[in-house]
Specification:
alpha/beta, Rossmann fold, six-stranded mixed β-sheet, five-stranded parallel β-sheet, 16% strand
Length: 347
């Protein structure tokens, strides 16, 4: 399940696009795009360089083939850094650690080293070696391959064991309730996270909200069919526990409010939130929504998109120690361009 789109309509979508692009420019970063045999990837590279978003690395075991693909499609990649996939470009200590980790899983050193000849694994190790700031892929590779290579090489963030995803949800103009973009998590990776996993999802989502919208207060709501004990069920135990774990994680940190469990209306409608959860800073003001499982998350974002007119950007990977994006195989060059900008903000 892979999806990434941001239709270029007038209004909020253009505003948020400009917001992300301008923030990304300030990073002055470098992105590696390993799927260099695809014209969409090369077009995105051209766009990123032309607009001054970032430097771009294009790795391949056949540089001439990349140049031919660009020429055939009228793409100018003169400003990109074309590199031959070569272990010598990678950090030896990072390679040693990778090989050792694979050996613990029963893989021979030779097979582990051969993995680094694969463009995905090479790109992840290039990122891990500190040679760039983000890796954007998935236009050709499927989600399983992207997740496998990123987890094996990049690994998860400190204090987080679960890789997850989030959607940037952009409201239509003149929406009656929501005036600014919000985050939904996890809607694309984990079918049924436990309390610790749900905490990891919330920690990553809140962190990404702060990076995307510096200065905005993050109000994270753990969603449920119950608000503050209005129902009793063992299913709620996980949500209540993960809410408390998340609060503890961010204890004392300004600009972050976490609460739950909340029914959706209590999380977004001030009048309902005030009635059902008086005194809560999150009730009625949520902008980061943590869904209890993938069923709820996937249904939720699609309902908001199809019935509510929201634009859904994602799913964007989170929880990795370094920025990696998993695109849709049906993505456009513009999707790759925007994903690259967003990933730069997650460094």
């Amino acid at each position: 399940m892979k999806f990434f789109t941001l239709p270029l309509k007038k209004g909020m979508s253009m505003d948020i696009r400009s917001h992300i692009v301008e923030l990304a420019k300030k990073v002055k970063g470098k992105v590696i795009l390993p799927e260099t045999g695809d014209a969409r990837v090369l077009t995105a590279a051209q766009m990123l360089i032309k607009d001054g978003i970032c430097s771009v690395v294009l790795p391949s075991d056949d540089i001439d083939a990349v140049k031919k693909t660009a020429s055939k499609n009228g793409i100018n990649i003169d400003g990109a850094e074309l590199i031959t996939i070569d272990r010598a470009l990678l950090d030896d200590k990072k390679i040693e650690a990778f090989v050792a980790a694979r050996a613990k899983k029963g893989m021979s050193p030779e097979d582990a080293m051969n993995l680094l000849k694969n463009p995905l694994y090479f790109a992840m190790m290039y990122l891990k070696s500190g040679k760039c700031d983000a890796c954007v892929c998935g236009a050709v590779a499927d989600t399983a391959d992207v997740l496998r290579s990123s987890i094996h090489v990049v690994g998860t963030s400190e204090g987080i064991k679960l890789v997850s995803s989030y959607f940037l949800m952009i409201p239509p103009e003149n929406h009656k309730i929501v005036k600014e973009p919000v985050l939904f998590a996890d809607c694309g990776v984990n079918p049924s996270p436990d309390a610790s996993g749900l905490k990891d999802i919330a920690v990553a989502a809140i962190g990404n909200f702060q990076k995307l919208f510096p200065g905005r207060e993050a109000n994270a709501a753990f969603l449920s069919f119950s608000t503050k004990g209005s129902a009793k069920n063992e299913v709620l135990d996980k949500i209540i526990e993960s809410t408390e774990l998340s609060k503890k994680h961010f204890e004392g940190k300004p600009g972050i409010n976490i609460d739950g469990e909340f029914q959706f209306d209590a999380a977004v409608m001030p009048e309902v939130g005030k009635k059902k959860a008086p005194g809560s800073k999150v009730a009625g003001n949520a902008n980061v929504f943590i869904f209890p499982d993938l069923n709820a998350g996937n249904i939720g974002y699609k309902m908001a998109e199809r019935y509510g007119g929201f634009q859904a950007v994602g799913p964007l990977l989170q929880g990795l120690s370094l920025p990696v994006s998993d695109l849709s195989r049906g993505c456009t060059a513009d999707d790759i361009y925007l994903a690259s900008a967003i990933m730069l903000l997650q460094k």
